[in-house]
C-alpha cells in the first residue's frame, strides 16, 4: 500500500539534535503513515529512503532498523529497496481495542552517525466485525398503566470496530406499541431506548415479542439482532432505590481472586413479591463480566480474575436492581485499580557491538531503551553499570541510553570486559533487571617485539660440524594473532669484512642459530652480529639484539719446534767442552703451539739418550743441560731425542733429535763432523796414508803430539781474540744468535755462531753463551716458572 496522504493538522514536530562524545543522535520530523488492518503480510507502506531523503544503499550502510514501542516487529524494512512493508496481518481491534484512532509508535535507528527518527503508524479500521448483543433475549416487565411516551433503556450492542464502522443506529420491527429512540452519553456512546406509543392492556395481550436490530456504519453495513420479550404486569407503583447513585472503590492489582470489591444495596417500598430485589449487571461488556461477578441477592461484587493495572486502570460497572414487580433502578460502581510494583524494568537492546578496537577514542558499544509498565514511583527507573570499568552510560532521549567507552582501551592490559547493565525501579520492593554484555578488545599492532636479553653470548668449540645448533635468541610480543607472530633475521654486519652469511644462519620461525661451517679458533676467536625480530602486523614493528659468538679452542695443533730446525738437512751438532761443569747449558729446544690456554702449555722430556744420565732437559723451558761432570771416558758423540708435549686433552706432541759432540777444546768445531770425516777419509787417500804413517812411524808420535798442542794453543788464543771462535783457512764470519726473553726463555741469551765449512749445509751451532754468568743459572733458576715460555719464543739472528 502507498503511504497514506492524511496528515494531522498540527505541524510536524522536530526532534532535537543530540550530540556528545563523538556520537550523533539526530531527530527529524514526525512521520505519520497508515495502513489498513488485515492487510496481507509484505504489503507496501512507504519508501523510507525516499521519505528520509537518503541515497541508494545508505540504509544498508547505516544499518537502518525499525523498533516499535511494544517491542513487536509489526513492520519490516527492506534495506536494499528502502521499502517499509507489513510484517504481519494487523488486527486493529487486538492492537488498540475501542481506541480510535489506532496509533502504533516506532523509531527508525541508523548508525554512522547514530540517528533516530520518531514515527507513527495508524492502523485504519475496516468493517470486519458485526454488532453483537451480550444477551440475545432481553426481558422487559412493563406495568399495564405505564403512560404513553415512557422510555425504557435497552442494553446496547457491542462492536469491536470503531469510528464509522462502529454502531450507528438501532431499529425494531414495525408494531403499534413501541418505537426506538437513540440517545447518547458523555462518552460518545449511543443507546437504544424503547418508547411506549400506546397504553398497554394486560387483559388484551399479556406479552409482546420485538426484534431489535443494531446497525454499524460500514460499507456494506453489518448488523446484529436481539429479541425483546415484553411482559405486561399488574401495577407495581414503587421501584427500587439505591442508597448511592455512584459507588467508588479501589482494588490493588494483586488482589486475590474472590476478593470483595464492592457491595451495592437498594430498597423497595412495596411489599411482598414487589419488594423482592435482585441485582444484576446492566449493559456490561464481556471484559467486565469476565472480571467481576455479582451476587444477585446480596449485591456483592466479587473478583473473578486477577487485575492488571498495566492493562486496565479502572472499571465502570452498571448495576441494575429489579423488584418482584418488574420495576428497576440503576447505579454505577467505579473501580479504580491501584498499581503495585509487580513488573520489573525491561531493557530493549537497539544496537550492540561486541568488539572494540584498542586505542580507539570514545566508541559506541550499545544503544538500548528501558521501560517499566508500572506507574508512579513504581515506574521510575535508575540505570547503571559496575564501577571501575572504562565505560560510560550516557542518557539520550525518552529512556534511551548509550553505552560507550570512556577512552582508548588497551588489549594488553585487559582483552575482555564483562559489563552488567542494571536497571532498578523505585518501587517497594524494588525490582531490577540485569543484562550482561561481553566486549572483546580487538588487537592493534602497538607493541614491538622485545628480546629476552639485549645481548647474547654463545660459545662454540672449534672444528664443529656444519649446521650445528649453537644457541637461540628469543623475543616476545604482547600483541595477539598475526601481530604477535615473529620472524627472526640476521642484520647486516657492522664489519664489512666479516663473512656473516657464510658463518651463521638463523631459523626465521624460532630464532635458533646454526653454524654453517667449521670454525677455526686460530683463524677467528670471536665475532659479533645483530639479530632482528619483526612481527607480522601492519605496519610491522621490530626490535634488535646483539649476539657475540666466542670460539673455544680445541687441541688441534701439535707443538712446532722452532729450534733446532728439523728440515731434513744435515743434523745440527752441539759442541760441549769436556771441562763443562754439571748444569752446563748445552742448547735450548724452542717450540710453539698454535692453540691457546692450557692447550699451548708445553713441557719437554728427554725420551732417549746415547748415555742416560749425562744430559737432562728442563721440562718447562726446554733447556738441555749436563747432568754431571764430563770425563774422558764419556763417548765423544751423543744423540738425544727430546719430546715437546702440550697440555691439551688428548695431548699432542712433537720430537726433535739433538746431536752433541764432546770436545776437549774449541778448536775442534772446525773439524769435520765424524760422519763427514769418515766419508772424507774414504774419499781422500792422503788421509789414509797419514793414518798409516802415524801408526807405523812411532818415532814421529812425539812430534805429532807437540805439533797438536801447539796448534791447539794457537787456535785458543785466536778464538779469544775473535770472541771464542777459531778461524780456519777460509774466513768464516762470526754471528750472534739472540734468543730474547720474551719467548719461552727465562732471560735473553746470546750464542756465538760458527758456520760449517761445508757449503752444502747452512746449519748453525750454539757453542757457549757469551754471558759469563750463564752457568750460574742452575736448577733453582726461576726460568722454569716463567709463564712466558708457554706462549711464544723469540729468536733473533744478528
Notable characteristics:
mainly beta; 4-stranded mixed β-sheet; 8 helices; rod-shaped; disordered C terminus; calcium; cell adhesion; membrane; Protocadherin/Cadherin-CA; Cadherin_N
Structure description:
It is built from 8 helices and 54 strands. The chain is mostly beta strands. The strands form 17 sheets. The chain has a 4-stranded mixed sheet with strand order 3-9-8-5. It is rod-shaped. The N terminus and C terminus are likely disordered. It is a single-pass membrane protein.
Would you report the number of β strands? 54
Helix content range: under 10%
Rg of Cα set:
65 Å
Q: Mean of the pLDDT scores?
A: 80
Portion of residues in beta strands equals: 35-45%
